Amino acid sequence: MNSQLFHFTLGPVQGFVAQARRTRDLWAGSFLLSWLAGQAMAEVRRQGGRVVFPVVADGDTITDPLIAAIEGKPLAHDPTPQIGSLPNRFKATVPDSFDAHRVETAMRDAWRKLADAVWEQFVDRSQARGNETRAIWDRQVNGFWEISWVLGADPGDCSDARWLDARKNWRNRWPEPEGGDHCTLMGDWQELSGFVRAHEKSNQDDFWNALGSRVGRLELRENERLCAIALIKRLFPKLEPEDPKQSIRWVPDGISKAVRNWPSTAYMAAIPWLRGFAGDLERTEKLRAYEEHVIEAAGEAVRGERSMHIKSLESLKRLAWLDGNFFLPAALANASDTPLTENEEARQSLCTELKKLQKEHPVQPYYALLLLDGDNLGKHLSTGKPDAISCALARFSRNVAGCVEAHDGVTLYAGGDDVMALLPYDRALDCAMSLHEAYGTAFNDPDFTASVAVVFAHYHLPLREVLAEARRQLDGVAKDGNGRDSIALAWFKASGKAAEWVSTWADDNGEEFTKRLQSLADAVSADRFGSGFFYKLRTRYPMLADAGELENFPNVKRLLQAEYLKSRERKPTLEQAEEAIAELFSACQGFERDKDGKAGSQKALQLDGLRLARLLAGKEVHE
Question: Is-contact 115 141, C-beta < 8 A?
Answer without folding.
Answer: yes
